[in-house]
Write a structure and sequence with these properties.
single chain; alpha+beta; 60s Ribosomal Protein L30, Chain: A; two-stranded antiparallel sheet; 3 helices; 7 strands; globular; Endoribo_LPSP/chorism_mut-like; Endoribonuclease; RutC-like_sf
Length: 154
């Protein structure tokens, strides 16, 4: 039987992607005590890069929010690979978000709301978290957004 988070995902029409393998010398997640640190997730969907470019040049805020949502879903997929049952998540602790930004783009927090809103949509109050939203000059593979996360588990 599905847990409450898996049921919520189904009710929302969300299918989590398969957790991807790392592309360099790191691991996708580290469990330490009751915390799971998930490595930065990019805008990969079904093995294909999405949202390659800069916010404020190639994409607007709304598209950036979709990119951040995709990163959030990839984070949750890695988290599920780490712990199995998403019902064991007791808190989304922190998201660190990096937004590939044109020099004059200053709406990084609005972009990252795409990930924050997704966490709350899926986990409810447990999904409310601290975060950073940082504009950067470039990101790996030229993607628009990369996000890592820290999660508390039972």
């Amino acid at each position: 039987m599905s847990g409450k988070i898996e049921t919520r995902l189904s009710d929302l029409g969300i299918t989590l992607p398969t957790a991807t393998a790392p592309v360099a010398n790191y691991v996708p997640y580290v469990k330490s005590g009751n915390l799971v640190h998930v490595s930065g997730q990019i805008t990969m969907e079904n093995g294909e890069l999405k949202f390659v470019g800069k916010l404020g040049k190639d994409y607007g805020v709304e598209e950036g929010q979709k990119a951040a949502r995709l990163c959030a879903l990839n984070l949750i997929a890695q988290l599920r690979a780490a712990i199995g049952d998403l019902d064991n998540v007791t808190r989304v602790v922190k998201l660190n978000a990096f937004v590939n930004s044109a020099p004059d783009f200053t709406d990084q927090p609005k972009v990252v709301n795409g990930a924050s809103d997704t966490m709350v949509e899926i986990f409810g109050d447990v999904g409310k978290h601290a975060r950073s939203a940082v504009g950067v000059a470039s990101l790996p593979l030229g993607v628009a957004v990369e996000i890592d996360g820290i999660f508390e588990v039972a």
